[in-house]
Amino acid sequence: MIVLIFVALVLLAHWYLWHRLVRQTTRPGRSRKALTLGLGALFVVLVVTFVGTRMGLESWVAWPGYIWLAVMFYLVIGLIVLEVPRAVAAAVLRGSERRERAPEPEPVAVLAGTAAPVAEADEVVAVAPVPELEEAPVPELEKAPVPSASPMSRRLFLGRTTAAIAGVSALGTVGYGLSSALGDPVIERVMVTLPKLDARLSGLRFAVVSDIHLGPLTGVAHTERIVRMINGLEADVVAIVGDLVDGTVAQLGALARPLRSLESRYGAYFVTGNHEYFTAEGPGEWVEELKELGTRSLRNERVEISHRGAVLDLAGVNDVGGAASGDGPDFDKALGGRDTSRSTVLLAHQPIQVGQAAEHGVDLQLSGHTHGGQIAPFNLVVGLQQPVVSGLAKVGGTQVYVTRGAGFWGPPVRVGAPPEITMLEVHA
Q1: pLDDT for position 345
Q2: Closest CA to 251 of 229, 281, 294
Q3: How much is the pLDDT for 122?
Q4: What is the SS3 assignment for the chain?
Q5: What is the pLDDT of residues 175-187, one digit of tens each?
Q6: pLDDT < 70 stretches in the chain
Q7: Cα–Cα dist 128/287, whole Å
Q8: What is the pLDDT of residue 54?
Q9: Phi and psi at residue 427, in whole multiples of 5°?
């Protein structure tokens, strides 16, 4: 059902683009046919991309389709925004055309020796000159033709101007988004006060990263850069909060190997995201692979972090996406029976899980999933589904920090939500 809705929306978007970018910018002929075929080919490329990436095809299949998806999105947004000024400009042009077509009063010739007719107020009457000789013929009064642009030319000019503005805006936005998504993540430094935190734990540092999305577009350099930046933070704990991969170990195992080099005082920990459940193999094989790479998965369980003689509970729950396969979150298992007098930090992929975390007395939840919207204005849509889109907030008495993620999903584009690795310090 979701696939059918997606295909319908993509078809609708392509029809709208054809109407605005092809039909209203060209006359019938070869140019229109060529542009129509080109737009149809881009639609096919997009379909092949979505099918191909799910079949594990190489990156050369994914790049053109995903980039066109981003350009298509911003073209549609730009053209919709331009609909109102375009309608106003079209109305002005129609008014100008009507005024040009309106007939003007013809000049009145007056014979020699007769009185000119008396004009009414504000009426202008053209009077022919009296010839010196009666035999001379009276010259005919002719109005010089005034050159004017045809209505079709004006409509084409309006259509082409609108298309050019939308096209330049879309290409510029996607170009900026590509540089943001493929560049270094931003290091966000956040300090969180936990009322129950033992004072000896003040200054404990978590390197939080989420939504790395290892896949056909990332390459091993993406993982190496993230590992290098995390190690530069010299964190006490590394928290990988879901959506690490978009594929199987057989497909992406080589891309994950740099995680073996992660450095921290008390270890690296991982919880599943919804994308870990997208393959037929499920997250189990990645849990084993990460164990070989030195990262421990917290699957509805917790560990104790001992620091300067004090203890903090670090818990992790599975993503809600695992519920369909019987591998969903179990807060009672992860948080039950603990010493409630000490602080608890919970790793949970989706911010929406903070409601249950609050019911179990969690002090701080670390989440990802939202990408901060990734491509504005999707941040407005994400806010309808998740209680927090990015940053630090408080829900039901529990603080939750949502990282924008270090990678991307789908188009390698980020607009208004640069990739992020967070250095989070807890204080009493």
Answers
A1: 98
A2: 281
A3: 47
A4: CHHHHHHHHHHHHHHHHHHHHHHCCCCCCHHHHHHHHHHHHHHHHHHHHHHHHHCCCCHHHHHHHHHHHHHHHHHHHHHHHCHHHHHHHHHHHHHHHHHHHCCCCCCECCCCCCCCCCCCCCCCCCECCCCCCCCCCCCCCCCCCCCCCCHHHHHHHHHHHHHHHHHHHHHHHHHHHHHHHHCCCEEEEEEEECCCCCHHHCCEEEEEECCCCECCCCCHHHHHHHHHHHHHHCCCEEEEECCCECCCHHHHHHHHHHHHHCCCCCCEEEECCHHHHCCCCCCHHHHHHHHHCCEEECCCEEEEEEECCEEEEEEECCCHHHHHHCCCCCHHHHHCCCCCCCCEEEECCCHHHHHHHHHCCCCEEEECCCHHHCECCHHHHHHHHCCCCCEEEEECCEEEEECCCCCCCCCCCCECCCCEEEEEEEEC
A5: 999 999 999 999 9
A6: 1-2, 52-60, 97, 103-152
A7: 100
A8: 64
A9: -135, 150
Domains of the chain: 2-85+151-178 (no CATH), 186-427 (3.60.21.10)
Q: What is the CA radius of gyration of the chain?
A: 34
Q: Which two tokens stand for residue 415?
A: 């607009």
Q: What is the rounded CA–CA span in Å between residue 406 and residue 186? A: 8
- Please answer whether residues 388 and 400 qualify as being in contact, where contact means their C-beta atoms are separated by less than 8 angstroms: yes
- pLDDT given for residue 112 in this prediction: 56
Spatial distance between the Cα atoms of 397 and 364, rounded to a whole number of angstroms? 9
133, 135, 79, 138: which is closest to 107 by C-alpha? 138
Q: Give the separation between CA 208 and CA 223, rounded to whole angstroms.
A: 15
Question: 53: closest CA among 309, 251, 253, 206?
Answer: 251
Whole-number pLDDT of residue 216: 81
pLDDT tens for residues 24-74?
Answer: 999 999 999 999 999 999 999 988 887 766 665 556 678 889 999 999 999
Q: What is the pLDDT of residue 311?
A: 96
**What is the structure's pLDDT at 37?**
96
**Does the pTM exceed 0.90?**
no
With CA atoms as reference, report the closest residue to 414 among 368, 350, 371, 381: 371
Which is it for the CA torsion 165, 166, 169, 175, positive or negative?
negative
Q: Which amino acid is at 65?
A: G
